[in-house]
Design a protein that fits this description.
Helices cover about 50% and strands about 15% of the residues. It has a 5-stranded parallel sheet with strand order 2-1-3-4-5, with helices on both faces. Helix 1 packs parallel to helix 6, helix 2 crosses helix 3 and helix 3 packs parallel to helix 4.
């Protein structure tokens, strides 16, 4: 079986690449999906495709709706959803994705540092695993997929 893994969350570090490289090195049968990680493209897709907006709310709303087509479709196809909360910015989109994954009944792995432990306690409670590093995520994927410990 090939497993579909959706990688949601912060876009300012290379955590996705680290997980993908680790999964390749472990020869895991996985396909990774993610939201659009080009921040400018993600923000401006709605007005670029559908036309400009004077009001910033509608500018953002158009983009959010187009991005939701991708996010919802790929998350629904996912066997596992990994949600990363970064250190630098508030990750409202990641929190929303975590809630959406929970509502879909998707097994969820959450990744964040100790600084966010209290703020994310409800998200952590909905997750089946809470990690701090991409290496831990890869180890979980290996165990779940191949029933092997590193």
């Amino acid at each position: 079986m090939n497993w579909n893994i959706y990688l949601s969350g912060e876009i300012h570090t290379d955590w996705r690449e680290q997980i993908e490289q680790g999964a390749r090195a472990a020869n895991l049968p996985v396909t990774f999906f993610a939201p659009v990680t080009d921040h400018e493209a993600s923000d401006d897709c709605g007005v670029t495709i559908l036309g400009g907006e004077e009001n910033k709310f509608w500018h953002d709303h158009k983009g959010a709706q187009l991005n939701a087509i991708r996010t919802r479709t790929l998350m629904e196809k996912a066997d596992i959803v990994v949600v990363r909360f970064g250190e630098k910015y508030k990750q409202w989109n990641a929190a929303f994705d975590a809630g959406f994954a929970a509502a879909l009944g998707k097994p969820m792995i959450v990744m964040h540092g100790d600084a966010h432990q209290h703020a994310l306690k409800e998200v952590d409670a909905a997750a089946l695993a809470v990690t701090q590093t991409p290496e831990q995520v890869v180890a979980i994927l290996r165990y779940v997929i191949e029933a092997k410990l590193a």
